[in-house]
Amino acid sequence: MEGIVKVDDEFIVTIEALNHQAQGIGRIDGYVVFVEHALLDEIVRIKIIQAKKEYAIAKVVEFIKKSEYRKEPECPVYYDC
Fold it and tell me: Which of 3, 10, 11, 21 has the lowest CB atom count within 10 Å?
């Protein structure tokens, strides 16, 4: 662990922006977390999969509040590919 979080930690964050890779951007006490498959204004429970000094990468464990723009993929294995 190099930042304020470590791998496998779980948090609830609000997605406040998207980066150029379409990852949601949330913050934990100012610490930046890039969240795969999250959309702007969503509230999500996340699990840290990679932690760096300046940022972390996380995956969504649960959608607490989904974006009105979220569309579920037609393919049932979309998130596994």
Answer: 21
